[in-house]
Amino acid sequence: MDMPGELINLISIIRSHNRWRGLECINLIASENVMSPLAKSAYLSDMMHRYAEGRPGKRFYQGTKYVDEVELMVSKIFSDLLNVKYIEPRAISGTIANATVFRVLSNPGDRALVAPVQAGAHVSHTKFGTLGALGVEHIELPFDKDSWNIDVDAAIKLIRSIRPKLVTLGASVYLFPHPTKEIAEVAHEVGAYVVHDVAHVLGLIVGRRWPNPIHEGADVATASTHKTFPGPQGGLIFTDNEMLYKSIARVIFPWFVSNHHLHRLPATAVTAIEMKYFGEAYADQVVRNARAFAEALASEGFKVVAESLGYTKSHTLVIDVRNLGGGAKAAKLLEEANIIVNKNLLPWDPPESVRDPSGIRLGTQEMTRYGMLESDFKEVARFMRKVLIDGRDPSKVREEVIEFRKRFLEVRYTFKVDINSLSDIKLPLIY
Fold this sequence. Notes:
Blueprint: H1 5-24, E1 26-27, H2 37-43, E2 54-55, E3 58-59, H3 65-82, E4 86-88, H4 94-105, E5 111-114, H5 130-133, E6 137-140, E7 143-144, E8 149-150, H6 152-162, E9 166-169, H7 180-189, E10 193-197, H8 202-206, E11 220-224, E12 235-239, H9 242-256, H10 264-299, E13 303-304, E14 316-320, H11 327-336, E15 339-340, E16 342-344, E17 359-363, H12 365-369, H13 374-388, H14 394-405, H15 419-422
Parallel strand pairs: 1-15, 5-6, 5-9, 9-10, 10-11
Antiparallel strand pairs: 2-3, 4-12, 7-8, 11-12, 13-14, 14-17, 16-17
Helix pairs in contact: 2-10, 3-10, 4-9, 6-7, 10-13, 13-14
């Protein structure tokens, strides 16, 4: 039977997406990344078809002996990379990791202190997301716009006054490390737990370019495995507290995860091994690129936030584009030029401006993975100036972007491996 028209159309759409996002765009979304060809091959294993409810050696299904080996390997590699005792890899996203930890550490009616959404907190930390769904009261931590960080003195006073059940640190706009040590000391003084969401900076922690919050007093950390850590989409929880780890392991299944998308595990393991050998060089280049990109954007006339602080110490930087029509307009114009960013709330924005905020958020991690260096990000800054400041036709700039992107098509910081020499699997990459 010939392929039906709707299937041909679907394949065409997939091919168009792969070509556009994978070969022709400069992707600056701070929460995205790409896997290596080897990790992609591992992702396409037979494990994608299988179930493994429960924990290794204590499953509710048969046929999981190799899955168990891989899951234990993932936990061991991350334990070594992060220098922590306990790893829980079954969360299928960072949000599920947060939900699990919040449920273990609090009950409906309890109070939690979180950073303001406008200052970068992830929606899952808040009353608008997972925290609210669990019935936990959301109280904002004070934020200091001058330091682009938690106001430590004011936060200490609030913690002592409120006596919350938990304090959540970490953010989706995470320019500088949060004051984990100072917050943890006073939180523990009042019997509160500290949860630190490092979804955005896990790869920088593994690469020794960002502090590990567990080593600074946080009780538990949650993360994603697909942002600065360039693996498949998924979540991670880690801690040095054995009792807390056991409680998390009992809650994540069956409360928040049944089968935990097993094909993630071998791909995550491949990426973790890559990061063991290449992670420091990669993380170092990501951070250097972010700083150079911020400086280049400022020199092109953009209002990059936190200039007096050096702009950023992570992969992320933020531009205030109020004078250029706002975040929604800027992001759309850049997309027309094949430069992919996202609009983002800034600390001075009211919550209701979420659909058209003041800022755009940029990240250097994916294009660093494709080999871009500081000088290349200076060229990206020039493309952005042409579109947003000079008012050039985005379709004309798009032609320049596509030509520029041809220099950056191979994933770096990985092993040179002939995939087909290792497996029967042929990668179904449709371009």
